[in-house]
Amino acid sequence: MIDLIWEIFQTTRVEGVASKQKVVDVKLDHQNVKQDSIDSRLREIERRHEQLKLITLSLWSLLRDHSGLLESDLRKYISDIDLLDGKKDGIVSHKKEKSNCTNCERFIFSTASVCPYCGQYNEIKDPFKRA
């Protein structure tokens, strides 16, 4: 009789552990999918960053070769643009109109071409208009 009770007790414990393992496995699978999504988004951001560097270098070469501007002129323009928001901090931080992403509903700048949270493309009104 004690053997039967012990067997039931052990079976219940094993089933409980197996059930908890399934929950852990599901959570782990979800984390792996989430990590894959983050890795994919990071690769896309890195690819776009490299494209922007290429475009920027090409535009500078074109401007330099056809205008006679020097690198010191470019540095001054960069500094002047940086100061547009009142702070020399090396970033562009205009006070721009915000809107909701049509996909994830998070707040994004209206001038953003892509939602930084979910990657949804946003229709840009005028990318050269300063807010």
For the biggest sheet, the summary is: 2 strands, antiparallel
What order do the strands of the largest sheet run in, or round the barrel if closed? Answer: 1-2
Overall morphology:
elongated
Q: What value does the average pLDDT take?
A: 84
- What percentage of amino acids are in beta strands? under 5%
Q: Write down the domain tally.
A: 2
Q: Whole-Å distance between the termini?
A: 81 Å
The level of helicity is: 55-70%
Q: How many strand elements?
A: 2
Order of helices and strands: HHEE
Please report the number of helical segments.
2
Helix-and-strand structural type = mainly alpha
State Rg: 27 Å
Which runs of at least 5 residues are low in confidence (pLDDT < 50)?
A: none
Verbal overview:
The protein is mainly α. The protein folds into two domains: 84 residues; 38 residues, no CATH class. Helices cover 60% and strands 5% of the residues. The protein contains two helices and two strands. The protein has a two-stranded antiparallel sheet. It is elongated. The mean pLDDT is 84.
List keywords for this structure.
mainly alpha; 2 helices
Q: In brief, what are we looking at here?
A:
The protein is mainly α and 131 residues long. Helix content is 60%, strand content 5%.
